[in-house]
Amino acid sequence: MPVVLHGPSYSTYARTARLALEEKGVGYDLNEVDVLSGKGQAPEHLARQPWGKVPAFEHDGFSLFETFAIARYVDEAFPGPALQPADVRARARMTQICGIVDSYAYGAIVHKVFWQEVIVPMQGGTPDAAIAAEGLKVTRQVLDVLEGLAAGDLLCGGTVSLADLHLLPVVEYLRMTKEGGAAFAAKPKLSAWWEKMNARPAVVKTRPKLG
Ligand SMILES: N[C@@H](CCC(=O)N[C@@H](CS)C(=O)NCC(=O)O)C(=O)O
């Protein structure tokens, strides 16, 4: 059975899993479950992901959900360049950065700053400035912390790691916002990281088309 990833191309978490597949050179079928139109709650998707979220993953009869678990599995089950540093401390840093994305960055950036500034107007609505400001406050703290943790123009030094792949889709959306984009551009290490990552074929290939 081929590798299947269930998730729409606009999803940041599905994109992280796809980036891991692309960086490893693994072929896969993409099943674009449109969670925004409620398809995540369809019985066949709830059987893959009990919360109706994306992505969900299948390989040879093995099913998995939760993006960090999928990305680690992809790295460890397939040949290709290692996406986790061999050094124990660099690997711990990688896991820490992925945790920061999950616990603090994603909610503030995607659900608050990006949603209010880009998606709400796209859908003909009026952004809620208070929600955007709340998100921006957390975003600024996230950027300060990540700028401090980044090893250089790759987050964990050396080669591309799961930390780079976890953060990138969220930053792509942050950069589409005015104040969030400006706050990001003010971070020299993160800006150099973006320039480097943005040129990678996997990143170009998985770029979402909005609107
Ligand atoms: N903890 C999950 C989070 C996945 C997640 O939040 N995915 C978003 C899309 S980026 C989603 O499915 N949202 C739809 C919903 O919450 O109904 C993971 O790591 O995979």
How does this structure look, described?
It is a single chain. The protein is an alpha+beta fold and 211 residues long. It has 2 domains: 4-77, 3-Layer(aba) Sandwich (Glutaredoxin), CATH 3.40.30; 88-205, Glutathione S-transferase Yfyf (Class Pi), Chain A, domain 2. It has 9 helices and 4 strands. It has helices at 12-24, 43-46, 67-77, 88-122, 129-149, 162-174, 178-185, 188-198, 201-205; strands at residues 4-6, 29-31, 56-59, 62-65. Helix 1 runs parallel beside helix 3, helix 1 (12-24) crosses helix 6 (162-174) and helix 4 runs antiparallel to helix 5 (129-149). Bound molecules: glutathione (GSH). Glutathione binds at residues 11-13, 35, 40, 52-54, 66-67.
Question: Which terms summarize this structure?
Answer:
alpha+beta; Glutaredoxin; Glutathione S-transferase Yfyf (Class Pi), Chain A, domain 2; 2 domains; 57% helix; globular
